[in-house]
Every structure is written in C-alpha cells, then in structure tokens.
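Appendix B, example 12.
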Amino acid sequence: PANFEQVLNENPQVTTIVQTVMQGSLDDQAVLRMGYLLRARGLNTHLRARSEIYSGAVDLFLAGRQRTMEPGAVIGVHSWADGFGEGADYPRDAREHRSNVAYTRDMLGSAAFYWFTLQAAPSDGIHEMTRAEIARFGLLTR
C-alpha cells in the first residue's frame, strides 16, 4: 500500500487505474487498504478488452468511483481459505468475514457480491463471471 500511495502522490494527473493482467494478491488486507485509498482519491477503474483480473485484483477493481470494462475482459472470483477451511465453511457472522463484508458493502452498497464469490468456486479454483453476473452485482457503473 505504501508504494501504491507513493505512485499516486507522484502522479496526481492519474484519474483512472487501468488493470491489465492481475492474478490476485498475497495479502488481502493490503489490497483492501489500497482499495480504500483508491476510493478516497476518487479514482476510476477500467478493464481493457484483454484485461484479466482475478481474486484480490477484483477487490481493487471494486474501489473505482466509476468502474468500466470493455467487451472481452475477464473477471474471475473464488472463495478464500485460511488453512483451517474455505471462506464458505465459516458461518456468515464469523469474524473472519468482517473486513471483506465491510469492504464490499462500502464499495458496492451491499455484501451480496462477497457472498457470491464464496460460493462461485473454491479457493483453488476460479469462476469467470458472466455478463449477467457482473450486471447482477453492480460491478460496473456504466
């Protein structure tokens, strides 16, 4: 997050973060911190036709004030695992969900997308979202 913030500080002319190919993240909490920073700065996110974002990269995409994508872009989601079980194995009120629920609600106005990702594919798999799913959860603003 510190490097991300430094790049943004050094480039105040940036208004849109264009994600190309991003496999995900190693540190989900770092991604959430970067997402909150991106949103606080009022930046937009965009996917080009050949963009492929997965897992934690999708969380970063959600932070865009305006979220757009060209036809052909791929958004892939899955559950998380923590060594004790899959995210979907924990009760909905478990503390393990709290930061992700809050983040998704802050970015999209609802946690429905988060709960969908837990069921879409296991942590060692991936589900490429359909256009209908992307629309259903309000991932795009236009």
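The longest strand covers residues 44-54. The chain has a mean pLDDT of 96.
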